[in-house]
Structure formats: C-alpha cells, structure tokens
Design a protein that fits this description.
Largest sheet: 4 strands, antiparallel
Shape: globular
Distance between the termini: 73 Å
Low-confidence stretches: 1-106, 108-116
Oligomer: single chain
Radius of gyration: 33 Å
Strand order of the largest sheet: 1-2-3-4
Helix content: 10-25%
Length: 494
C-alpha cells in the first residue's frame, strides 16, 4: 500500500516528512502502525484476519483500513467518499483536504477489502414436512383466537393512552395516515388481475370437473360422486347417521365469497345499522385492492394528499368530511367489468373450454390462486382488515362497522354487534379443505379409511384433477406417501 501526498507548502510541514513503522501480532490480528510526525496527523492501519466458516467458500481475504486522527489546530477536515467494485474486490477511496489560511494539502487513501459471497448458483431447497395435519376446526361456542397475542394488544393500548394523556400526537405512517403506499399499488393491480383469472378459470373448469356440496353443512367434494364419510354436522345428520346429503355444487362452494362494504372514505363516517343499505357489498379482495390504490370508476375512493392526525384514538384532523359521489349508474360496459370481479353466475357466463385447453386453464387458475393469496398477505401487512371473532364477517378499513348483523354465539349480549379483531388471510380467502382423490374415477371414499385420506384446498383439488401441477407446499397435507390399505387391513394398522 502506498500513500502519496504533495509536498507541504510554506508554513506547513510535510506530512510525509518522517514515518515510523512498527508491526505487532496480538490475538490473531496484525497491526501496522504508521505515524506521521511534525504535529500534523497520526495514521493507524489495521490488517485483520477474518473468521472463516466451513460452510462457505472464500477467496483471498484482505481487509485494510486506515484511521486518521488530526491534531492540527484550526484545521478543517472534509471527506469525499467514492466506492468502486471490481469482481470480488471492493475498493474505497477517501480523499481528504487540509485547509487553513495557506493553500490546502490533499491526499488520497485507499482501502481494499474482499467479502465472502454466497454462491448464487446453489440455493438450498425449501424443506417441507412429510405429513402435516389440517388446522383444527374452531368451536362455534367460543370466540376465535387473536392473531396477535392479547398481551401485546394491551401493551400497545397502554402506550397509546399514555402518549395521548401527554397531548402528544400519534405518529402515523402510510397507510395508517390515509395515504397510499406507492410500492403496493402495482401489487394491488396484480392481485385484481389474478382474481379475474381465478374466477374465469374456475367457471370454465366446473363444466368438466364435477363438484358436490352437502345441503345440510358446508362440506363439499370434488369428484364424480359424493364420499361415504360420516362427518356431517347438519341439523338432520342424526337421521342419516352422519352421511351427507349431496347436491350439485357451484363456484361459490369452491371459492367461498367473502364480501365487505365498499367505503369511499375508510377514515370517514362509520357505517351504522340504519345506513347499511346505502353501501355496496363487493368481494373483500376487491375492496382491499381499491383501498391499496386500484382505481375503478364503478367504485370510487378518496385519495388523500394530506395525512390525517390522531391523538390516541381520536382523529383531530381528517381533512374534512367529503360528500360521497352519487351511486354509479351501471351500463352494459360497466356491468361486464363488475361481473368479472364477482362469482355471481360466473358458471353461465363462460362456456365449456375445449378438452385440449383444460390443462393450460387449470395451471393458469392455480397460479392465479397463489398470486391472490401472496398479494393479499402482502397487502394485509400494511392495510388494516378486521374480522368478527364470532362469525365470518370481514371489513376492510381502520375500524369495523356498526351494523348489528352478528347472529353467532352470545350475540344477544352484544346487541348483534360484531366482535372486531385483526383478520387473517384464511378469513379473507377461506381455503375450504376437501378430501384429496388419488383416483377420481375410482370408488367413493369410505368412512373406515378416513384417517388415511389427505386434504387440499378446493381450488387446488379441482385444478389437480384437471391436469395442473400442484405446488410442493400442499403435498404434505395431501398425504401422497401414505399407502391406503383395504378396509380389512386398516384394523391391523397401529
């Protein structure tokens, strides 16, 4: 390493006038000290031996650093940093200027380092367990568990209350302050496009893949006929000894429609029980995309330019209450756009596809399903979505509505109001697990072999039977590696 500096001008001694070098070795570290005398500067150069790991590959390891401490009085030190990267070597140049009443002295110092880089060609595959159990069915006579631990919710409420009592304004970041997150706007458009592909693909596949649903409970089965497993929980299931009453299913049985109220201003007036019919009900996924930045003329949304201000739970500045626009008059063109985002009568809108296109449509459908779940999960990390802790009601917005429509456990105590809490992805897009069929044309599933059968989301099962490739994350719950025995052999299995 070489350090060059121009000769000192009159009145300032040369910084390279005399050099003292000394080398020491301590704790596996080589230190080379370079001292510039004449009262100008003192430089220390370190050479450190890097710590090596057996699981990573290394080339030439070299790290040189220079620390300069100036002791000249009435001296101004300015630093300009430039970085250059050549292959695996990273070089940084520091250019310093010593400025006094005399002409300034400049010097260039070089630092070269090489960091170990991971091999981009080798990626460790994601390890999935061999078999997993499905999420447990939550009891209806109990509130759903909180996604966030209740102690953390209480602690955050105490902190907000303490700050509010001090009169300090609550710091809010987008989208909590009413502004959009620019990075999530393309994600919202991608989710909406994938949602349209998902509805169109399922409507076409149901012409070929039969779906059966129970008329007494929410169980569905994707096969030529219903199964014989006795797990019906309907009101008259005792008379049928637990067997299901199968009828022809629809797209709403496969893709459960979860709707939400559309709000022009999510931070405006709350929806009251008397004014609930003044608001449109649209799919919760579409409402989430609209609030995340998607512009639909049929469903306008207020776009703020100034953030809202809050002290505790009280909004002190929301930019005024803007009157909502008049309801949109649906025309033939607008009706076609609205039908693309809704599952209502989707089976009638799309004709049966050619047999040669069924595998391609199935793959596009399952890919769109994965994009929707990925995008909704990413949007829900920023945008607030509330769900009732007792029923399936979902509301997209900073706080829930006041419509008294809950009829689940202990709704009399709450006067029909919902018990709002943070929602999960499964509440916005229910997976609706169904039994997996290894042979769709084989005999129906039997109750004696119930524990040997796997399950999969209804959308995944329908696309699988149509010829799509199943993602690896669904294979553990489908139990593909378990050999299904005969009914007589099942009694001998431990």
């Amino acid at each position: 390493m070489q350090i060059n500096a121009p000769a000192a001008t009159s009145g300032i001694p040369s910084i390279m006038e005399s050099v003292s070098k000394s080398a020491t070795c301590r704790h596996g570290k080589e230190m080379l000290k370079i001292a510039f005398f004449s009262g100008v500067c003192l430089g220390i150069m370190d050479f450190k031996m890097p710590k090596l790991s057996a699981s990573r590959s290394y080339g030439l390891g070299l790290k040189l650093s220079i620390n300069l401490d100036f002791v000249v009085q009435a001296v101004t030190w300015t630093v300009a940093l430039e970085a250059y990267t050549i292959d695996l070597l990273q070089m940084q140049f520091w250019q310093g200027h010593i400025q006094t009443g005399q002409p300034k002295i400049s010097g260039t110092f070089l630092c070269v380092s090489q960091k170990s880089q991971k091999d981009s060609t080798f990626e460790k595959p994601t390890a999935y367990p061999q078999n997993v159990d499905l999420p447990p069915i939550l009891p209806k006579k109990k509130k759903k568990p909180y996604p966030i631990p209740f102690k953390k919710i209480q602690q955050a409420a105490r902190n907000d209350k303490k700050v509010a009592q001090m009169g300090i304004e609550k710091p809010l970041e987008p989208p909590k302050n009413g502004l959009l997150v620019p990075d999530l706007v393309p994600v919202a458009y991608e989710v909406l496009d994938a949602w349209k592909v998902l509805i169109r693909g399922l409507a076409q596949l149901l012409h070929v893949i039969p779906v059966h649903g129970c008329s007494e409970c929410s169980e569905i089965h994707v096969a030529q006929s219903g199964h014989r497993i006795k797990d019906c929980r309907g009101q008259s299931s005792v008379k049928r000894k637990g067997l299901h009453a199968w009828v022809k299913g629809s797209i709403n049985d496969v893709l459960i429609p979860i709707e939400s109220y559309h709000l022009y201003d999510p931070f405006g007036r709350r929806i009251q029980h008397e004014t609930r019919f003044s608001y449109d009900r649209i799919p919760a996924v579409v409402e989430l995309c609209i609030q995340a930045g998607v512009d639909l003329p049929e469903y306008p949304s207020r776009r703020r330019t100034n953030p809202i201000r809050m002290i505790g739970k009280k909004v002190i500045d929301r930019g005024g209450l803007v009157e909502e626009p008049a309801p949109f008059h649906h025309s033939s063109d607008s009706s076609s756009l609205l039908m693309d985002i809704d599952t209502h009568e989707a089976f009638k809108r799309y004709p049966p596809p050619p047999l040669s296109d069924i595998p391609r449509i199935a793959q596009e459908t399952i890919d769109a399903y994965e994009v929707v779940r990925w995008g909704v999960r990413k949007l829900m990390r920023k945008y607030t979505v509330k769900a009732c802790g007792y029923c399936s009601e979902v509301h997209v917005g900073p706080w829930g509505h006041n419509a008294k429509l809950c009829g689940e456990f202990k709704h009399q105590w709450r006067d029909g109001k919902h018990g709002w809490q943070d929602a999960t992805v499964e509440e916005v897009i229910p997976p609706n697990y169904v039994y997996h069929l290894r042979d769709p044309k084989g005999p129906p599933l039997r109750n004696a072999l119930k524990r040997f059968y796997g399950k999969a989301p209804a959308v995944v099962e329908a696309c699988l039977q149509a010829g799509a490739k199943v993602p690896d994350k669904y294979k553990p719950m489908m139990r593909l590696d378990i050999v299904i025995p005969d009914s007589d052999e099942s009694r001998l299995v431990a």
